[in-house]
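mind reviewing this stuff:

——
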Amino acid sequence: MSKGVRFILDGRVRELEDVDPTLTVLDWLRGPERRCGTKEGCREGDCGACTVVVAELRGGELRYRAVNACILFVPFLDGKALFTVESLCPPGGELHPVQRAMVDCHASQCGFCTPGFVMSLVALYENEAVPSRARVNEVLAGNLCRCTGYHPIAAAAVEAYRGGGGRGLAAHQAALAADLRAIARKDALELEHAGRRYLAPRTVDELARVLAARPGAHVLAGGTDVGLWVTKQHRDLPDLVSILAVEDLSLVARTSTHVEVGAAASYADALAALAEPFPAFGELLRRIGSTQIRNAGTLVGNVANASPIGDTLPALLALSASAVLRRAAGSREVPLDDFFLGYRKTALAPGEFIEKIRIPLLAPGTLFSTYKVSKRFDQDISAVCGAFAVRLEGGRVREARLAYGGMAAVPKRARACEAALVGKPWSEEAVASALPSLDAELSPLSDVRATAGYRRLVARNLLRKFQLETAGPARAVAEAAAGGA
C-alpha cells in the first residue's frame, strides 16, 4: 500500500505523505501552498469562489471537471491533475482563452469571485463544443457574483470560443495524459495522520473486506455531505474508507430491464443514462446542487444519506428502485421501499455498503414525472419533492406509486392515496376523491423552508398537476390500446 497522495499540479508530480485525510484542497492551496487565487467564501459548496478543475483519465480520454475545493479532501486528488487559476497562465505565458474573454468583456468588478467563474468556464471550454446560452447558465449556476452581474460573464463564455482558436489546456493534453498514466496507482492508498486513517481500496472484494474489519468507518465517495461535517460541524472523522478508486463502482449501465448506477458514479456520470428513459428524472438531477456538486456527489450517496429531503429519493421510490447491498459474506438486493427505516436510519448492516442502485425501466402504459418545489430554482434544498408513476390499462389506473420528500421523517410513499386511485379512471375527479387520504398519511413539519400547512397544500397540488399534465398522454395510451384490441 502506498502512503502518499500523488497528483499533478502545474505539470509536476506532487506527492504528499504526511497529510490529514480531512484537509480540504482549499485549505491546502491557501495554506501550505500559498496559492490564494482560489478564494474562500461559504465553505459549503454553494458560492463557487473556491472552484478548481480536476482532470482524470476515463476510458483513455481526459476529462476536466469543475469542483468545489472547500469541501474536497486532498486524498480525492490521488491519480488526478489539479488546475487552479494560477495554473492557466504561467509567468510570461499567454492568458487562457477564458481569461482573455473575461478581460475583453469587462466581466470582473471586485474580482473576488472571478477565479471561480474562470475555472467553471475553463472546464466547460475544455470539455464541450460551443455551448448554448442555457448550457452556460447551467454551468454558472454554482458561481455567485454580487457586483458585476452575469451578463458580461456569460458573454465571456461565448467570446472564449470565438477567440480561443483551440488554445488552452488542450495544447498540453498528450503530455498530461502520459503523466497521469505514469502515476496511475496499482495498490491501495493508505494514509494515517494524527490518529486519523484513510484507506482507498481498489476492488469491490477488497472494499468488502476492509469494511468488515472496520464496520465503524465512514464510507466516502464525492464528499459533498461529509465535507460539510468537517467544515461546518467540525466533526472529527478518525476512520475514512473511500470508494472512488474502485473502478467497478463507477459503472453506469443500461440493460434490457434496468438502469444500474454504481456507488462511485457521480450525478454527472449518471445523468445521460437516467435522462433518456426518465426525462423528468434528468431534469431533477440538473437541479441538484450545482455543476460542481454534481461532478462530485453521487446518486448512491444520496440514498445512503437517507435524508427525508434527498431530492432523488422520491423518484427512486416511485420507479420501484432497489439497492444491491454488499458485504464480505455476500450481497442482497433490497427494494428501497424497505431500505429507509427511520430518520436517517437504513437497512444497512454493520460492514455493509451499497454497491449499486437498480432502476426498472418503465412498463408499457406507465406515466412518470417528478417535481421539486424550493424557494430558488437553482442550488436550493427542497421544501417538497414529489414523484409519481401511474400505470394505466384501458384508461384506468392499474398501479400507482406516489412518493414524497419533505413530508415525513423518511422519504415516503402515499400508499392510502395509491390504493384510492387503483381501478379508477385517470381523471381529475378520481384524483380529487383520493386527495384527502394524503393528509392522514403524511406528517410534515414546519421549518425555515416551509410550514406544515404549505407542504400539505403543495403535496396535494403536485399530484393534481401530474394528472393534468399527463391527461393527454393517458388518452393516447388508452386509444393505442383500444386500436390494438
Observations:
- Residues 247-360 form a domain with the Uridine Diphospho-n-acetylenolpyruvylglucosamine Reductase; domain 3 fold (CATH 3.30.465.10).
- DSSP finds 18 helices and 20 strands in the chain.
- The longest strand covers residues 384-393.
- Residues 452-484 form the longest helix (33 residues).
